[in-house]
Amino acid sequence: MSVELPETLILAEQMTQTLLDKKVKSYEIRDSEKLQRVGFMNTDLKDYDRLVGCKIKSITHRGNVIWIKMNKKMNLVLCPDYGARILYHKNEESLPKKHHLKIEFSDGTYFTIRQTGMGGIHSATDTEVKDLYVIKRDFSDTPSPIGEHDFTFERFSKLLDVKGQNIKAAIVGKAAVVVGLSNAAFQEIIYKARIHPKRNTATLSDDEKHDVFDAMKHILNARICSGGKNIWVDLYGDPGRHTPVMGPNMKDKNCPQCRAAIEKIAHGGGQVYFCPHCQRISNYHTK
What we know:
By secondary structure, the protein is α+β, with helices and mostly antiparallel strands. It is built from eight helices and ten strands. It has helices spanning 5-19, 33-37, 126-129, 133-138, 153-163, 167-171, 183-193, 206-225, and strands at 24-29, 56-62, 65-70, 74-79, 84-89, 101-105, 110-115, 120-125, 263-267, 270-274. A four-stranded antiparallel β-sheet has the order 1-6-7-5, with helices on one face. The two termini are 28 Å apart.
């Protein structure tokens, strides 16, 4: 299950409340070989030795990335992206059986991370952190749809016009006009905006662009207020309460608005569920 901007924000805020000023006593890494091969963890595991003795000074987030800044010019960068369990533990008895990185703090509490999909767990100095791909990707000029006052409809509309691409590519992926979203948020946003998944942004009217913008704000804020998606757990192991209005959970179901049977197509590197009636492609061409 992808961890998108709402869940990343929730995790970062919980970590700020819980982990600040904690000192790293020790760490343990397990089952790291596959992650190392694809660049999701440091190639040299001794890089994590540099975290021992460091105190957590601040925690920031943007897009799908959580940036844990420590003293001694060290950083731990987490990118849950396509799935991770990031958990805080008050004692050793509550530790999970599996983890990729376990950190023990000097006060006897613990912090564990286990990637369940593509993502990243990186130890980096202040100099090294600037070269991490995920930092360059998410701490960039690409706007965040939540938490930034300069993300206006006018800016969003202009970015859509400049790109002129499929609506999914505009919301998800390397060419997206926003950071932090993946296929799960995309399906909800275009359903609420009544946009077919194969529409090109060049064919969108101003009203339709406004519908997408408003739907994006509504869906993301609803997920944040509900503590994240209902198939995700937060830092303390508590599940979110947000049930997606569109996505895999709608398989073999009918649209709650018009009662049409929900359809599924392979599109943009994943499966997209949509309502063929509410999200008609009409007479527009696809690209």
